[in-house]
């Protein structure tokens, strides 16, 4: 997954590069003057260099940005032979040369053939101010935004002038907002008057985030007495805010875990909750679903790579069919002989789970199989202080969709009606002409099929190995038992409660201890309410 | 709440007043009140869902009432006790479906039911005494199972299982016996014999019988309470109750 | 009181098996130690160890049978009691290593030195004494079972619900023992044992003694289990299994009945674990794996639950099969085990011993019926002659 991200990143760079090249080509003449000025950077004293930099900055041309950045980094070298200045990168004993203006590759040179353009901190400061000013004045709003953000992250007093100028000229609202924040941050580290700083502190506090916090903490060390209380209050405020976001992030992780639990448990809510069958091979149904995804992706990779983004959509119905069929065979072949003997069912299905595990191990090997994320499931986005990955996001949506589908199926369709009728009163249902054995088989197949599509989703975030299912079976039972047997809503609430509880406990107790605590809590809870959160009451339950 | 004259409480063996219980909004019992006197044999009738079994659940501690009073022998509050305690106090219960220990012999079934110390260690080191033997023999003949003492209960006929269960209740030596549909599934001859058996038992203790079989109740010839929708509809002799218009509407007429 | 308990326990079948076990306990070590390796009757040491291990498994299965077969409590957490007993013994063996560990610390076991611990945690005190460790091997599982059972049975958690929370219990312990800071060696567990009560754990003599101890412990537990099952209390247990509410309405405290059986059973499992660890030389958190507990269930089911001999037969047969299978076709062992689960529940619900007993009883009844018939015919004949 990592390798793929880097690859994609490089692709983007390439595209951007090509764009830049074409832009440059249209503007060659101006480039000649610039080249002369850049070449003049080499060889002179620091003062001369400083003048050159300022002159370059005055041109306001964004093309000089790479050269200035390279100078600041110490990567700018002058070729002794013709005095041309290049951006270089070490390559063995040679330097790899890049044209300072166009960014084109310009061959290699021995290290000895080049001389470094000297730079010191004074010069760097000038460059930074120049760069800030340059990019802040760029005609492209995106570039301006990035420049402002850079300053916001690394504020300096030198950037102030540029910022003031840019702010006066800025028309874009978003950029302006960031500029204001960057200005405030820069004011804090400058020697501007106290009043101005106070206003700046307020702005920084409003910005919030970890960077603002370190900025304020830094400012606190060297701050004027009169400013200290303001800064301290500000720090406190930001810390509170951060704690709130951290809690929010934990709840998000909890929701995410909850959705995984819901997916794993929801098939069980049918087979165990509605039918009362203990299916210890339920986890293996999830595992089979994940392996179906793997096989589908394997075929797509070999034969139809263009379809890769559709692989999950293709795997979904297939996984449902595969695991549904396995469930059907299990019900007809084994479980139906064991109705009314739950402990025996438990043992027989455990046997099936061992067989399925070993079968998968024999076919695919014991190691983890790589299941890829389609592009729309990769990456992450920020929401306020939260980082949200797309795959987790989609899994939450998916789990809720499956839940909704099942609820609809059970409550609103004739098949669901028959299922409920059979589980509530088998004899009555049978005498009303419902083919109860058939309904049993289909219900069990449905529960298994749902486990299969859960496997498709879980293959996106978990290791796909023959042991995949084992990790889920205890948790799934806990969810169903905790939520209350025979109640889909109970499973929903149970899954998310346990998910969030787990993740909220984790920061205090650690991952393992947190899990143990949750198990202990559930065991205690079952003592208190043996029939779960949403228990059915009355005589019918006892029968 | 007090729908009964509370002066009945001290002398009664069983006293229910204003007992209500509901399951998920369904009112199984609705302010049910009645009194059983010591030594009384009482029949309780009523349509399905009238709350007969729920009433037994409450008396024997299986279900807790939402409201109301349940007293045994005038002073013992049954709502505060669980099944085992109530059984040890001297209230025996026969289930609707005969429930005996199928993988034990008839003899062992009765031995387990004997009213002896019921702790873990006293049962672990229990030895059958001559007294206990005699008592079991006596009960065996009372319930007409003497010749089947060594057979597994699983191999008894339905009627014999019913009797074995009644025998187990006798071995428990209760002061109050609750009997749920004792003649369901019995032949006519067995039914008649069961009526005689129950009357015999009632000579020494109080018995409450829940039954659907009107012929059987007529055979018993005792005071009848008719329940409907969780409360008492009518109470009196069988002729009085079966003449009651509401009883006919609710129960007999259908 | 006690004598009547034991007398009741010793019915014919139990006497035979106990005698057999005691004979094996004496004979096998003798054949191992007193005969030369090329003697035709010589029992190699690896067989002694292997069967010593099987006997501890048999004891574990017997413990499970006491609650499952006779009381209907399907515990999916008995491996946890076994492992706790094993850890207690492992802690003793660890402390016996003393300064001979790789770090040469006379007080701290190697893994503690490795974790940079400075002093022995309080719960390791006393484990340098054998009697204390042996006591703990029984008491700790017993206490856990008592506390767990007290909560579970009091609130009437029954059937599969109970099975699932016992499974959760052993799963929680598995996670806990994996942690280094629990102080039980984390992932690696306890191993590298040197000697037990002063005798080298590797020597033939010690191995034979452990084998004999396992056989004797199994025999004693069999007598205790038999006494329990054949007492009035045992009949109540079966009553709880078959008709729990009837037992309750007869005035028995079902939760106390279950709790006693569960606790005794956990203690037996602890003894089994304590005997197991010195024979295999290691105890690690893997023993808490829920899959292990379920495997114990299948041993019991194969042999015949609700019989006392069944679990012993089942444990030895299944584990013997496992040893052979995993050596010959390692790929297929899980298929075989899985198949066993399915086939036994479907076709052999009474297990081997239960089914055999069923046939013997049928045969007896048939013979009795035939004899009755013959007697009747004989009685009828003189009348016919008259």
Estimated helix fraction of chain C? over 70%
Number of domains of chain C: 2
Number of strands of chain C: 4
Please state the structural category of chain A: alpha+beta
Radius of gyration of chain C: 24 Å
Total number of domains of chain A:
3
Sequence of secondary-structure elements of chain A: HHHHEEEEEHHHHHHHHHHEEHHHHHHHH
Q: Give the mean pLDDT of chain A.
A: 81
Task: Report the β-strand fraction of chain A as a percent range.
Answer: 5-15%
Q: What's the quaternary structure here? A: heterotrimer
| CATH C-level label of the largest domain in chain A | Mainly Alpha
Proportion of strand residues of chain C: under 5%
Shape of chain C: globular
Q: Do you know the CATH architecture of the largest domain in chain A?
A: Orthogonal Bundle
| Largest beta-sheet details of chain A | 5 strands, antiparallel
Strand order of the largest sheet of chain A: 4-3-2-1-5
Protein model, in words:
The complex is a heterotrimer of chains A (543), B (254) and C (386). Chain A has 543 residues and is of the alpha+beta class. Chain A has three domains: 2-123, no CATH class; 137-223, no CATH class; 245-542, Orthogonal Bundle (ABC transporter involved in vitamin B12 uptake, BtuC), CATH 1.10.3470. Chain A is built from 22 helices and seven strands. Chain A has helices at residues 2-25, 28-39, 46-59, 65-73, 121-136, 141-153, 160-169, 173-189, 194-207, 209-222, 228-274, 282-303, 311-333, 342-364, 390-412, 414-424, 426-431, 436-458, 470-483, 488-509, 511-528, 539-542, and strands at 76-79, 85-91, 94-99, 105-110, 114-116, 380-383, 386-389. Chain A has a five-stranded antiparallel sheet with strand order 4-3-2-1-5. In chain A, helix 3 (46-59) packs parallel to helix 5 (121-136), helix 4 (65-73) packs antiparallel against helix 5 (121-136) and helix 12 crosses helix 18 (436-458). The longest helix of chain A is centred in the middle third of the chain and has 47 residues, at 228-274. Chain A starts with a helix and ends with a helix. The model of chain A is unreliable at 537-543 (pLDDT under 50). Chain B starts with 13 loop residues before the first strand and ends with a helix. In chain B, the strands form two sheets. In chain B, strands 6-7-8-3-9-10 form a six-stranded mixed sheet, with helices on both faces. Chain B contains ten helices and ten strands. Chain B has helices at 52-59, 83-89, 106-113, 120-124, 130-142, 158-171, 188-202, 214-220, 238-243, 245-252; strands at residues 14-23, 26-36, 41-45, 67-72, 76-77, 91-94, 176-180, 206-210, 223-228, 231-236. Chain B folds into two domains: 1-89 and 222-254, P-loop containing nucleotide triphosphate hydrolases (Rossmann fold), CATH 3.40.50.300; 91-221, Rossmann fold. Chain C is mainly alpha-helical. In chain C, helix 1 (2-9) packs across helix 8 (204-230), helix 3 crosses helix 13 and helix 12 (290-303) packs across helix 13. Chain C is built from 15 helices and four strands. Chain C folds into two domains: 2-349; 354-386. The longest helix of chain C is centred in the last third of the chain and has 35 residues, at 351-385. Chain C has helices at residues 2-9, 12-34, 45-71, 78-97, 110-114, 130-154, 159-178, 204-230, 232-242, 244-249, 254-280, 290-303, 310-328, 333-347, 351-385; strands at residues 190-191, 195-196, 199-200, 282-283. In chain C, a hairpin with a 2-residue loop joins strand 2 (195-196) and strand 3 (199-200). Classes of the chains: A alpha+beta (543), B alpha/beta (254), C mainly alpha (386). Chains in contact: A-B, A-C, B-C. Chains A and C meet through helix 14, helix 19 and helix 21 of A and helix 6, helix 7, helix 12 and helix 14 of C.
């Amino acid at each position: 997954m990592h390798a793929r991200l880097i690859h994609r990143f490089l692709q983007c760079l390439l595209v951007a590069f090509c764009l830049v090249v074409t832009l440059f080509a249209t503007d060659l003449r101006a480039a000649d003057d610039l080249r002369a000025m850049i070449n003049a950077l080499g060889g002179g004293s620091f003062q001369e260099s400083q003048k050159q930099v300022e002159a370059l900055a005055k041109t306001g041309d964004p093309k000089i940005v790479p050269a200035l950045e390279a100078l600041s980094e110490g990567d700018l070298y002058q070729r002794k032979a013709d005095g041309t200045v290049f951006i270089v990168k070490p390559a063995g004993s040679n330097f790899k040369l890049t044209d300072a203006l166009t960014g084109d590759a310009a061959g290699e040179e021995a290290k000895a053939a080049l001389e470094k353009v000297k730079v010191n901190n004074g010069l760097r400061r000038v460059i930074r101010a120049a760069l800030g000013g340059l990019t802040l004045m760029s005609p492209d709003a995106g570039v301006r935004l990035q420049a402002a953000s850079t300053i916001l992250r690394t504020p300096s007093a030198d950037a102030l002038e540029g910022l003031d100028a840019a702010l006066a000229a800025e028309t874009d609202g978003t950029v302006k907002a960031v500029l204001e924040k960057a200005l405030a941050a820069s004011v804090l580290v400058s020697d501007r008057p106290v009043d101005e700083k106070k206003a700046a502190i307020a702005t920084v506090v409003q910005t919030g985030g970890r960077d603002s916090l370190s900025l304020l903490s830094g400012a606190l060390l060297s701050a004027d007495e009169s400013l200290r209380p303001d800064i301290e209050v500000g720090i406190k405020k930001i810390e509170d805010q951060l704690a709130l976001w951290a809690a929010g992030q934990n709840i998000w992780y909890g929701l995410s875990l909850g959705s995984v639990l819901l997916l794993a448990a929801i098939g069980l809510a049918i087979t165990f909750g509605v039918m009362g069958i203990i299916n210890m091979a339920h986890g293996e149904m999830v595992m089979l679903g994940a392996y179906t995804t793997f096989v589908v992706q394997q075929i797509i990779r070999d034969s139809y790579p263009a379809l890769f983004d559709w692989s999950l959509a293709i795997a979904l119905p297939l996984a449902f069919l595969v695991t549904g069929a396995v469930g059907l065979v299990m019900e007809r072949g084994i479980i139906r002989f064991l109705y009314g003997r739950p402990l025996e069912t438990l043992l027989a299905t455990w046997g099936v789970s061992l067989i399925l595990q070993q079968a998968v191990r024999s076919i695919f090997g014991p190691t983890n199989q790589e299941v890829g994320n389609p592009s729309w499931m990769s990456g992450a986005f920020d929401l306020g202080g939260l980082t949200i990955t797309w795959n987790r996001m989609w899994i939450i949506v998916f789990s809720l969709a499956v839940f909704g589908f099942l609820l609809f199926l059970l409550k609103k369709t004739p098949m669901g009606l028959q299922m409920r009728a059979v589980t509530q009163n088998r004899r009555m249902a049978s005498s009303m002409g419902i083919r109860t054995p058939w309904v049993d088989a289909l219900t069990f197949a449905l529960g298994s099929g749902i486990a299969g599509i859960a496997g498709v989703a879980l293959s996106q975030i978990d290791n796909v190995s023959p042991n995949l299912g084992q990790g889920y079976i205890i948790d799934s039972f806990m969810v169903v038992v905790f939520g209350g047997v025979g109640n889909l809503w109970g499973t929903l609430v149970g899954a998310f409660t346990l998910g969030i509880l787990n993740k909220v406990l984790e920061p205090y107790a650690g991952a393992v201890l947190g899990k143990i605590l949750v198990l202990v809590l559930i065991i205690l809870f079952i003592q208190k309410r043996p029939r779960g959160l949403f228990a059915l009451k009355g005589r019918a339950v006892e029968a | 709440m007090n729908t009964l004259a509370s002066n009945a409480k001290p002398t009664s063996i069983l006293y229910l007043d204003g007992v209500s219980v509901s399951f998920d909004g369904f009112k199984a019992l609705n302010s049910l009140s009645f009194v059983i006197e010591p030594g009384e044999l009482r029949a309780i009738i009523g349509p399905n869902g009238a709350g007969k079994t729920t009433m037994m659940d409450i008396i024997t501690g299986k279900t807790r009432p939402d409201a109301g009073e349940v007293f045994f022998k005038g002073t013992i509050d049954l709502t505060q006790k669980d099944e085992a305690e109530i059984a040890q106090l001297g209230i025996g219960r026969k289930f609707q479906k005969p429930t005996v220990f199928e993988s034990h012999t008839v003899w062992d079934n009765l031995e387990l039911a004997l009213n002896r110390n019921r702790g873990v260690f006293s049962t672990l080191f229990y030895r059958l005494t001559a007294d206990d033997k005699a008592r079991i023999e006596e009960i065996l003949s009372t319930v007409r199972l003497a010749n089947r003492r060594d057979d597994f209960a699983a191999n008894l006929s339905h009627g014999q299982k019913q009797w074995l269960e009644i025998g187990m209740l006798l071995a428990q030596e209760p002061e109050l016996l609750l009997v749920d549909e004792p003649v369901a599934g019995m032949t006519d001859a067995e039914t008649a014999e069961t009526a005689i058996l129950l009357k015999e038992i009632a000579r020494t203790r109080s018995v409450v019988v829940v039954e659907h079989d009107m012929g059987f109740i007529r055979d018993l010839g005792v005071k009848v309470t008719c329940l409907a929708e969780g409360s008492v509809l009518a109470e009196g002799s069988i002729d009085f109750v079966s003449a009651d218009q509401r009883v006919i509407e609710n129960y007999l007429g259908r | 009181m006690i004598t009547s308990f034991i007398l009741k326990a010793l019915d014919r079948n139990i006497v035979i098996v106990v005698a057999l076990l005691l004979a094996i306990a004496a004979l096998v070590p003798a054949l191992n130690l007193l005969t030369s390796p090329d003697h035709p009757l010589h029992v190699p040491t690896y067989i002694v160890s292997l069967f010593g291990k099987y006997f501890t498994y048999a004891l574990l299965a017997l413990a499970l049978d006491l609650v499952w077969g006779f009381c209907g409590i399907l515990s999916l957490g008995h491996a946890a009691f076994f492992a706790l007993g094993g850890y207690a013994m492992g802690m003793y063996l660890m402390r016996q290593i003393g300064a001979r560990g790789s770090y040469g610390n006379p007080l701290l076991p190697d893994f503690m030195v490795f974790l940079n611990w400075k002093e022995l945690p309080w719960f390791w005190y006393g484990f340098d004494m054998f009697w204390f460790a042996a006591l703990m091997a029984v008491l700790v599982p017993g206490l856990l079972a008592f506390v767990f059972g007290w909560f579970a049975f009091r609130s009437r958690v029954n059937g599969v619900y109970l099975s699932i929370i016992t499974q959760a219990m052993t799963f929680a312990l598995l996670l806990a023992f994996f942690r280094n800071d629990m102080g039980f060696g984390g992932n690696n567990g306890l191993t590298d044992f040197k000697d037990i009560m002063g005798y080298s754990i590797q020597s033939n003599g010690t191995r034979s003694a452990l084998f004999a101890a396992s056989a004797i412990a199994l025999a004693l537990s069999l007598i205790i289990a038999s006494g329990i099952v054949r007492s009035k209390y045992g009949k109540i247990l079966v009553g709880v299994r078959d008709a729990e509410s009837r037992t309750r309405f007869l005035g028995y405290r079902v939760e106390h009945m279950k709790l006693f059986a569960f606790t005794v059973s956990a203690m037996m499992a602890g003894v089994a674990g304590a005997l197991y660890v010195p024979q295999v030389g290691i105890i690690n958190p893997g023993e808490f794996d829920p899959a292990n507990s379920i495997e114990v269930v299948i041993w019991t089911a194969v042999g015949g639950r609700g019989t006392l001999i069944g679990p012993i037969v089942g444990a030895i047969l299944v584990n013997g099969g496992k040893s052979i299978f995993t050596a010959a076709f390692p790929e297929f062992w899980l298929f075989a085990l899985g198949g066993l689960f399915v086939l036994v529940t479907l076709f052999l619900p009474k297990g081997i011993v239960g089914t055999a007993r069923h046939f013997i009883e049928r045969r007896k009844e048939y013979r009795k019926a035939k004899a009755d018939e013959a007697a009747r015919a004989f009685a009828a004949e003189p009348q016919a002659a008259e």
